[in-house]
């Protein structure tokens, strides 16, 4: 209503402004016509003609109160006549006006000027031009701004309406309130609009109060018209109607409230109680429905809902215990992948509590290394079910489990997807048993192979031993002093004896016999002895050996020769991996129960896809390798109740770890 009322006000004000602007334009045009007629006085030379036009001037001045004074002047600016004959400025004192009409030879309407007596006015000037087009002087008429303001006051809108005229400089030359004459609107938005000859409506602060006004440029003199009224006055009728409507609304509202109170007590209140119970049931804040005593259909509805809730609780309880009794991880999600149920098997496998995961998206949990590996997510995205997929899962402690995954979709009665179920079975132990079985089969094959190899090596080894002993006897008989040669021959004999013992052990292994010759052995001494034997190979390949021993003696209960074979294989692998030189680091450290040996090289490393196979028989990353060294080492360490594993980074190097149980010097296990 206010918007419509405001539109009517703007339409009315614009219409009045257009009408008033035409009237003022006509009034100014009439004054221009008067000065044009009077300008003939300057051109007449006969006294009779001059008297005629002088009487015409007096008639015009008497009939039109807007004239403050009418004067004529010659081309030099000399005053010829003045009506009425009162104190007023000489025409030539306004040189800019006289200069303008002398060259333009047309009328001119000035901005506001000040007379000698201090009065404010504006002038309408018309030139006198003879038949040859020569400027001979002119007529200047000064306008009475008080009379102009009275005229504007008569045409204002109601009591507080405002009409005003401003000149080209933004000064007020006419106002329904004469006290505001000579005020300036030069910096006001309306003054700027009128200076650019724009027209329209404006609402805002004007003449020290908030107003709604219409503004239009006048076609004469470059003046502008402002017409409007205070906003308070304009909207007074609207407020009266608003008050009337508000009173009617309040009456209707009171009637509606009374009817609502009556309906609430009989109908709405029981329904609200039932809705409240439904919400509480949905939020798990209540487990049954209280009957609503209304003796109508609402009471029957509340009883029916209570029976449905009881049956639903029984079904939920059976489903819950069924899921909890399943020994596997069972997870259900909604269609967006958010977890809706998480059974006890899932808690035991993932180490997450159901309170931590319910409501979260399954892909936000750290079960997998990346989103694309989530079978449940693929099930939802692709609409494809998976049956017994071999995969893995990380638990809360970042431990990896080998698992088999089964997934299926849930669909509603309209066949729309509503979620998915995920069943995960931990097969880590099964995988280990299968790996142990495969390793046993490989070692059985290895035993058969090594039996044949041992028989073939024993004969040439006996010849090497005999030859070395013969050289040693020959040196003694010849009495040749060569400590270096003797030392090398002793190394050959010692190593060949160890090899002979190892071959004997291999033969026992192939026959199912075990070598129980174990003793308290110092791992540090074995490592130092092997490094001494390999010193020439290490030096030739420009390898630097770095030893980091926490202790000088690390005792274990072991077969020394077989343990020597383990570390010899590992050291040779590290040396062979550094063909262009590098650093061979040996670390010995211990904890409460075990000694741990780390042998690290800076070679080319092993690819992740190959690292898991390095302890398998006949698998080798070297072109000339047999693939037996680390598989034999693995079997020996297992027989000593130890562990052996490796880590590697390509282009960086490889670390072999050997862990053996500690013993005291006397041989007691720790």
UniProtKB/TrEMBL annotation:
Q: What keywords are assigned to this protein? A: ATP-binding, Cell membrane, Kinase, Membrane, Nucleotide-binding, Phosphoprotein, Transferase, Transmembrane, Transmembrane helix, Two-component regulatory system
Span-the-membrane segments of this chain are: 244-263
Q: What is its EC number?
A: 2.7.13.3
User: Which GO MF term does the entry hold, naming one?
Assistant: ATP binding
Membrane topology of this protein? Multi-pass membrane protein
Please state the protein's primary subcellular location: membrane
* Occurrences of domain Histidine kinase (ranges): 452-664
Q: Where in the cell is it found?
A: Cell membrane
Domain PAC positions: 387-439
| Ranges of residues in domain PAS | 315-363
Fetch the InterPro entries from UniProt: dCache_1 (IPR033479), HAMP_dom (IPR003660), HATPase_C_sf (IPR036890), HATPase_dom (IPR003594), His_kinase_dom (IPR005467), HisK_dim/P_dom (IPR003661), HisK_dim/P_sf (IPR036097), PAS (IPR000014)
Q: Which residues form the signal peptide?
A: none
EC category? transferase
Question: What chemistry does it catalyse, as a reaction equation?
Answer: ATP + protein L-histidine = ADP + protein N-phospho-L-histidine
Stretches assigned to the HAMP domain: 265-317
Name assigned to this protein = histidine kinase
Q: Looking at the record's lineage, which domain of life comes first?
A: Bacteria
Protein's UniProt keywords contain Transferase = yes
The yes or no answer to whether the keyword Kinase is present is: yes
């Amino acid at each position: 209503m206010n918007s419509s009322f405001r539109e009517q006000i703007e339409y009315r004000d614009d219409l009045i402004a257009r009408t008033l602007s035409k009237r003022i334009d006509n009034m100014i045009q009439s004054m221009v016509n008067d000065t044009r007629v009077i300008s003939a006085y300057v051109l007449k030379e006969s006294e009779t003609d001059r008297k005629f036009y002088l009487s015409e001037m007096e008639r015009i001045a008497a009939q039109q109160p807007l004239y403050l004074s009418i004067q004529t002047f010659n081309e030099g600016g000399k005053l010829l006549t003045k009506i009425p004959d009162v104190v007023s400025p000489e025409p030539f004192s306004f040189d800019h006006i006289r200069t303008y009409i002398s060259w333009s030879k047309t009328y001119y309407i000035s901005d506001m000027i000040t007379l000698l007596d201090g009065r404010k006015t504006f002038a309408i000037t018309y030139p006198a031009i003879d038949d040859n087009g020569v400027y001979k002087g002119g007529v200047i008429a000064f306008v009475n701004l008080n009379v102009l303001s009275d005229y504007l006051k008569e045409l204002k809108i109601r009591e507080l309406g405002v009409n005003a005229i401003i000149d080209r400089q933004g000064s007020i030359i006419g106002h329904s309130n004469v006290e505001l004459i000579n005020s300036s609107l030069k910096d006001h938005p309306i003054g700027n609009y009128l200076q650019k000859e724009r027209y329209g409506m404006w609402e805002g602060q004007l003449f020290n109060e908030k107003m709604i006004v219409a503004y239009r440029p006048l076609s004469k003199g470059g003046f502008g018209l402002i017409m409007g009224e205070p906003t308070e006055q304009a909207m007074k009728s609207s407020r009266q109607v608003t008050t009337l409507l508000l009173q009617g609304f309040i009456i209707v509202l009171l009637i509606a409230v009374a009817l609502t109170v009556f309906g609430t007590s009989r109908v709405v209140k029981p329904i609200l109680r039932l809705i409240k119970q439904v919400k509480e049931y949905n939020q798990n804040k209540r487990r049954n429905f209280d009957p609503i005593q209304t003796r109508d259909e609402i009471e029957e509805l509340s009883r029916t809902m209570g029976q449905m809730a009881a049956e639903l609780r029984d079904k939920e309880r059976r489903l819950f215990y069924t899921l909890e009794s399943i020994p596997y991880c069972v997870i259900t999600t909604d269609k967006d992948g958010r977890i809706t149920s998480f059974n006890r098997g899932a808690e035991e496998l993932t180490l997450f509590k159901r309170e931590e995961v319910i409501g979260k998206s399954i892909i936000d949990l750290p079960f997998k290394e990346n989103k694309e590996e989530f079978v449940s997510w693929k099930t939802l995205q692709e609409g494809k079910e998976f049956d017994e997929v071999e995969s893995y899962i990380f638990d809360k402690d970042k431990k990896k489990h080998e698992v088999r995954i089964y997934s299926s979709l849930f669909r509603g009665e309209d066949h729309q997807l509503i979620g998915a179920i995920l069943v995960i079975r931990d097969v880590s132990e099964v995988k280990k048993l299968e790996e142990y079985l495969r390793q046993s089969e490989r070692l059985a094959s290895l035993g058969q192979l090594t039996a044949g190899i041992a028989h073939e090596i024993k004969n040439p080894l006996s010849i090497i031993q005999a030859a070395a002993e013969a050289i040693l006897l020959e040196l003694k008989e010849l009495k040749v002093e060569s400590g270096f040669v003797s030392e090398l021959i002793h190394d050959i004999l010692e190593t060949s004896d160890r090899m002979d013992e190892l071959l004997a052990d291999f033969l026992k292994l192939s026959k199912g016999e075990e070598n129980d010759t174990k003793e308290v052995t110092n791992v540090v001494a074995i490592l130092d002895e092997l490094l001494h034997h390999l010193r020439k190979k290490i030096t030739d390949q420009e390898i630097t050996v770095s030893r980091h021993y926490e202790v000088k003696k690390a005792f274990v209960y072991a077969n020394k020769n077989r343990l020597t074979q383990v570390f010899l294989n590992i050291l040779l692998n590290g040396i062979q991996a550094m063909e262009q030189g590098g650093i061979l680091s040996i670390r010995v450290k211990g904890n409460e129960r075990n000694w741990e040996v780390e042998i690290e090289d800076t070679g080319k490393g092993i690819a992740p896809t190959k690292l898991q196979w390095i302890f398998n028989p006949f698998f080798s990353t070297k072109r000339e390798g047999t693939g037996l060294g680390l598989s034999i080492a693995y079997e020996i360490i297992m027989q000593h109740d130890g562990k052996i594993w490796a880590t590697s980074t390509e282009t960086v190097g490889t670390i072999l770890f050997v862990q053996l149980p500690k013993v005291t010097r006397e041989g007691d296990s720790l």
